Amino acid sequence: MARKIEEENEILERETGEGRSLGGRGGRKERMRERLGGKLNPTELEIEDVSHMHAGHAGVRGNSSGETHFNLRVVSKEFEGKSMVKRHRLVYDLLKEELESGLHALSIVAKTPSEV
């Protein structure tokens, strides 16, 4: 399965000139859920696509998927002992591929279980 996804990604990159990952699942929201869920083991994970609220915005133009703006709320023990900046950096690092392939804006609420 992993080899098949790699092959599809290579074809997509050649055809579109973009280095987008298919991740084996549907759209960006599903890939984000898979990536964050797998690495952070969250007790809560809410991902809201708010791209429709930014139609015509510079970050949306030229993006065929339309999945450019998201609100994220994640609760995880992985955030314990980390400042808000370090929590956000961790999320950005995990979503690096998405940010490089059209994810334009991400609003993050990152908490520990004891903070909710």
UniProtKB/TrEMBL annotation:
This is Uncharacterized protein. Its main location: plastid. GO terms for cellular component: chloroplast. It is found in: Plastid, Chloroplast. Belongs to the BolA/IbaG family. One of its GO terms (biological process) is iron-sulfur cluster assembly. Residues 1-18, 27-37 have a biased composition (Basic and acidic residues). Residues 1-40 are annotated as: Disordered. It comes from Asparagus officinalis (Garden asparagus). Keywords: Chloroplast, Plastid, Transit peptide. The lineage of its organism: Eukaryota, Viridiplantae, Streptophyta, Embryophyta, Tracheophyta. InterPro entries: BolA, BolA-like_sf.
